[in-house]
Records
---
Amino acid sequence: MADRIIRIATRQSPLALWQAEHVAARLQHAFPGLQTELVKMVTRGDKILDAPLAKVGGKGLFVKELEQGMLEGTADIAVHSMKDVPVEFPEGLHLAVILDREDPTDAFVSNKYRSLAELPADARIGTSSLRRQCQIKEKFPNAEILSLRGNVNTRLAKLDAGEYDAIILASAGLKRLGMGERITAQLQPTESLPAMGQGAIGIECRVDDAEIHEYLKVLHDEETSIRVGAERAMNARLNGGCQVPIAGFAEIKGERLFMRGLVGSPDGSLLYRAEAESSLADFEALGKSVAEDLLAQGADRILRELYQ
Ligand SMILES: NCc1[nH]cc(CCC(=O)O)c1CC(=O)O
């Protein structure tokens, strides 16, 4: 088994490369002698930087080209941020493992204010995520939401140039890139409920590649798989992608799984929230029930409007 070379498809942002190299290092640690090779690719999501993600549309914006590589045989596995992975896969590919989760919170980053609570009512806030936008706008209806695309360094540079009073981005990305000290405040799930899969890395591969599955098994993290499994089940029921204001976050406490979900209108005027708990084994049903609750409250109206 140790003679194989595993070709790892990855995007080229510093965070994507960190994640791919992390996977390579962990595989090599578990299987000394195993060779790995990064196959660097550019996705549509990387190319379209001038439009807010919400307007670009389409699912799998950051994964399609990587999937094509695996289907064509130029790569064996693809390393993804679970947040960017659609609930459905192309024929012949699937999610093999989910790794342990980094900090799942959203980070409040500012050079002027120490916390969300200190922000003035008309603050200029950088984010291109409708999920973050609707939660900020609920608390700060007069805040100005400004587009914030690009990799983590680009986003911080724009903040440092004075374009925003504060920006919101994933804590996990900052921590992985060694910039955890830039996090001014970690937003609690009650302040900014994270996206499905935020902070977790997943690996996709060809369904029929039995040997690869043997290698990947060592990376599996049971708790993260359960949590992200519940979150993805919620998104699947809501038909959600990265361009809709949906949040889903599950936590394990003892033998129980607690889940919170949210669907909001982009302007923050209407937010539906739901929460429920279950045994760990029932994670899929839990995610689905939180979605059903949100739909029963009226979330389907928001979603239908956005998909038009
Ligand atoms: N949608 C882009 C994306 N996909 C994953 C991360 C961060 C890392 C993670 O959540 O694992 C980000 C950037 C962000 O949300 O600020």
---
Amino acid sequence: MLPLASETAPDTIVTPEPPPLDRRPRGTSAILDPRQLVEAFPEAVRKLHPRLMVRNPVMFVVEVGSLLTTLSAVLEPSWFAWLISGWLWLTVVFANLAEAVAEGRGKAQAESLRRARTGTTARRLRSWRIGLERYEEERVPAEHLQMQDFVVVEAGETIPGDGDVVEGIAAVDESAITGESAPVVREAGGDRCAVTGGTKVLSDRIVVRITSKPGRTFIDRMIALVEGAERKKTPNEIALNLLLASLTVVFILSVVTLQPFAIYAGAEQSTPVLVALLVALIPTTIGALLSAIGIAGMDRLVQRNVLAMSGRAVEAAGDVDTLLLDKTGTITFGNRQAVRFLPAPGVPEMQLAEGAQLSSLADETPEGRSVVVLAKRYGLRERAEGELGRLEFVPFSAQTRMSGVDLNQPGAWTVQVRKGAASAISVWVYERGGLVAGEVLEAADLIAANGGTPLLVAVHDRYGARVLGVVQLKDVVKDGIRERFAELRRMGIRTVMVTGDNPLTAKAIAEEAGVDDFLAEATPEDKLELIKREQAAGKMVAMTGDGTNDAPALAQADVGVAMNTGTSAAKEAGNMVDLDSNPTKLIEIVRIGKQLLITRGALTTFSIANDVAKYFAIIPAMFGHAYPGLRDLNIMALHSPTSAITSAVIFNALIIIGLIPLALRGVRYQPSSAADLLARNLRVFGLGGLVLPFVGIKLIDLLVVQFLV
Ligand SMILES: Nc1ncnc2c1ncn2[C@@H]1O[C@H](COP(=O)(O)OP(=O)(O)OP(=O)(O)O)[C@@H](O)[C@H]1O
Ligand SMILES: [K+]
Ligand SMILES: [Mg+2]
């Protein structure tokens, strides 16, 4: 028997419904539960270690200040010194709490992923090649699998490692990683060949080539990601940290140089007062929340089944101008099926069916397999080995846009059979001295104009080169995509479909899906070039794709989102993976990216604005005695110098706790112009940051006086 792809009978497997476009995030809700704060407390205390604290310059300064104040309280005990040092320590702990709570959210998820990983035994094959019928198997623990090993997995078994399906087709339950219970189809050859270790085969049997190193599997990386183990500061975070650190240095210098003046004026200040002033003035609010904001952004993506491999990608997503999408498998379902044979004039339909079948004998793509299935309906039997002579297969490639076979029979002409894109096959026929009938090209154009993909089938034998006819491939645009592209437009993002398919098909699908622009007959290099051109024009480019031919483009894009259904190459190349394989997920990704940037900006504004009020609280308290004129600054009419300073420090600490929910949830984002957004945020967070502390400090002052006087 020939290794006919149809043996695995793809038509017995039902293609599952695609995941709904607007799935609610699973897992923990975004609202802060007080229990989370309590649970994270020990971790927050552990984070007081100076080695960890130095990474956050602002809070490190607060920690050193707390230490100095505590020392001074020990040397010269007073309730004031102890109170201040207590609240300063709390300030540092609150900051750590924000980070610990943000990190804690991924922990539960990591636990369930760990369970999916453990204890699988792999059925490794001693050797594998296309068409091999007899396999020698050995059982090894999944952790021992190396790259390029071949394993066989059958219904009911867990896939032992990440890889590409090289033989067969199966329904796979990926709920262990996606939380989605509907099975998905994974098959050899096409853009849906990647499988993930820890997921389960539900039907049939596949051979998988392992593509990950031991300990570096997708689940391993996912665990590291949700636990934040691989989190690095992004360039933006580093820049902001630098700015905050410089501000801090300026305030340290001004507070330190204040003392000589104070002594001169006869108002020497104690260590707790000086430290309190410093802490009140430096941007502690944003310093405390910065890291939590970044972690929460990544976590929000995980909740939506998107794994971002870097924080930088999340930030870039917030600034995306152009989105490139490939067509097949991204905008359409990608399960292109042969539905009709249209023979060329004078060619019997049976002959076309036979040519199509021959050209697809070793074509393991969904297209190729579906051609074999369709040919079967014409009563074409499978051929016995040797009947056709020696076969040389020409696999499909995105560059040649064709696939086929050469039949070498001893003592006879070599017969070449090809199928592929109309333009590619036409050239192939012309080069061999043949002609392509106008009717054939018209039929192809008609199929294309209706959004289908035409494949020409041609043969070259001793009678010359000629086209046998056209195979019509049908594909369906995913539901709801049009509305989603309209939404992207409102967000100011231009969508461009890039496809290897012909211009007519591309145009039809582009119109149906509602993209802004399209590029047809694009090779992998063209896709890459397009991205480079956009980037050279200063555009931030996102790309979603699934195929190996998308990999170079996914790597070049600022945000490269690989579909989880896609090939390992695509998943390796991108900096995000969408477990739901939903191209319009980019809307959520952009939203989360923007939210991250806005939240960071808003809280920075708030933090700096709210330090102004503390200045008004503390300066009159320090010098009201020496310079009675300064008492006019005491506009809050705070009770006494000590209560004023205490209230400012308490407010400074509490505002951190108060803003943790906002840092984790993110500031709401609504599509609008950048100028409107800025104006709104300045109003809310600038003005709010200015006014709120006056009210807050006054209230705390009233309370403090109740308790302490
Ligand atoms: N198995 C195949 N055998 C022969 N020709 C094929 C096969 N699959 C696709 N083609 C032809 O090659 C062209 C390019 O295919 P390719 O997979 O590169 O792009 P695509 O999947 O159509 O586009 P996209 O980049 O949007 O996924 C197709 O339009 C089709 O005409
Ligand atoms: K402050
Ligand atoms: Mg593709």
